[in-house]
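Two proteins were folded this term; both appear here.
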Amino acid sequence: MPRPKGLPKTGGRQKGVANKRTREIADAAVKEGLTPLEYMLAVLRDEEADPERRDRMAAAAAPYIHPRLANVEASIAVTGHEAALAELEEIEAVKPIPALPVN
């Protein structure tokens, strides 16, 4: 039977608790006197390490090294356009009317 609406979720993994693999990485890094990032990079550079493990370390270290691209709203403020608009209006006013072709 599903949980009734409005009842808070209970049980399960607590938020913010490190999983087994994360805990192992952190413990190994502390044992070697490295920061977690330094440890991940050391494993990544170790050519004798399992390729799958090196891939996991690369994926885990990437957010610390390469920032994510963010959506940035670009806006351009044009100032002084009133003078340019007035100049264009003057040019249009002075421009002669083209003559119609005579057949």
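Next, the second protein.
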Amino acid sequence: MTLRPRKARIVCGIAAAAFLVVFVALGLALSGPVNSGPATFGTGDRIAMIVLGVLGALGILMLARPRVDADASGIRVRNLVGGFELPWSAVRAVRFNRGSPWASLELADDDVVAVMAVQAADKEYALQGVRALRALHSAATAAQAPTGSAPPAASASSEAASG
């Protein structure tokens, strides 16, 4: 299963397109002298404005980068910067606390990993995503749980010696 933010991707796409259009228009419109001074806008300045527009638009699109891929073996989280690949055994819980901007993973070592792809702004889509992640986590941890009720022989003998 793959999860990506919906509203953030739409907003980022529109903002990046608008940013690019404005900078390309500025780059094409700037020419000639500046005020009444000796400075002039040349071809290099025009190209620089267009390049700045492209770089700014790419920066805005980076905000739409978060993604989560999960399956029975584990979860792969890609946030704005960096990412994590974790087996379900390393995840203690999938959280989506009230008032949180996005979901998070509580790890077995008490660390918390933000899951920016599941955002509160997406409302029902985010809730469905969290429920699906919780179901995958439950199924994976249930499959890894030991089935026998008797403790292993090594731990039984160490308990008897300490006890």
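Residues 149-163 have pLDDT under 50 and may be disordered. Residues 2-62 form one domain. These notes refer to the second protein only.
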